[in-house]
C-alpha cells in the first residue's frame, strides 16, 4: 500500500467505519496486512460486535440475506458439513461416536460459569404491562416511527416496541421506540446497540415535538401523539 492509500484506509476505517476486511478487499491486500497497517498508525481496532453494530447502523449489514446465502451454500446442511470434514485429514473420521465430544457434557462448574456470563450480558425489562398497554398504543408507536426499526432502518421485518427505560409500566409515547426483532434481541440479550437505541429515542422524541408544534400551529388534533 502507498502512503496515500494508507491515509485513505485510516479515514474510511475511523470515520466511515468500514471493516478491515472490506478495506483489505478494496486496496488489494490481506485482512491481516490491513490490520497491521492500521495498528502502525495507532488506530484503535474494533471488535467483531462493534463492527457489526456499525455495519447495521450504516445499512451495510443484512442478517437475513447472510442467513439465506448460508443456506444456499449448504452451510446449514449437517450431513454436507460432516462430509466435507471427512477426508480433510487422511485417516480421521469424526462422525457420530467417533467424535471426541460424543456423549460428553459440560461440568456443573462450567455450566455455572457460562450461565453467569450469559446473565451478565442480559438487560432485563422490569415491571408488567399494565392496562394502558394496548394494540392501539403499539400501532401509534409504529406509525410514528414510519414502521421501521429506528436503529438499523429495516422495515420489511418483524417489528417490536421497546421501552427505552426498560420499565414496562412506563408506556409514555416518549418512552417507546420501534425496533426490529434482531436489534431488540441484541439489546436485551447481548447489550449491543445501547447507545444507538438512546440516540434513536432522542431523535424520535425530537421528531414528535416537531410534528406536535406543526399541528399546534395549524390547529390540528395532536392528542394521539403520532
Structure keywords:
226 residues; mainly alpha; two-stranded antiparallel sheet; 10 helices; 52% helix; globular; disordered C terminus
Verbal overview:
The chain has 226 residues and is mostly helical. Among the domains are: 3-45; 135-217, no CATH class. Helix content is 52%, strand content 4%. Strands 1-2 form a two-stranded antiparallel ribbon. Helix 2 crosses helix 3 (31-40). The longest helix is centred in the C-terminal third of the chain and has 24 residues, at 194-217. The model is unreliable at 222-226 (pLDDT under 50).
Number of DSSP helices? Answer: 10
Tell the overall outline.
globular
SSE pattern: HHHHHHHHEEHH
Measured as a percent range, the helix fraction is 40-55%
Mean pLDDT: 81
Short description:
The protein is built from 10 helices and 2 strands, in the order ααααααααββαα.
Write the layout of secondary structure elements.
Blueprint: H1 3-16, H2 20-27, H3 31-40, H4 48-57, H5 63-72, H6 78-85, H7 108-121, H8 135-144, E1 159-163, E2 176-180, H9 181-190, H10 194-217
Antiparallel strand pairs: 1-2
